[in-house]
Amino acid sequence: MPALWFETAKWFEIIEPAGAVSILLAASGLDYGLGDPWNWLHPVQVMGWAIAYLSKILLSVFKRPFTQRLAGTALAIGLVGGSGLAGGWPGRQRGVIRWRAGGFRW
Question: H/E element holding 69?
Fold first, then answer.
């Protein structure tokens, strides 16, 4: 049984550890050198806007500390779940990622 929660892909078994490190270093170098353009909308910006907007609403609706804590927990779970669904949606549409009981299958 693989150590990870998803089944090991065939392409991953081909890459030697030294090759994987070189790929990681090359990708890190490209990311550092190119980075994200300043004028592009970043998903973390959208998540921050959602947190700010929904926090104001939830804090005005729920007055007791316990219900505010529950609302904050629901907001956190919803944000993580929503971003996971949004990020996985294109892959599922192309058939790259298939859901099965117990996790995603690549």
Answer: helix 65-94
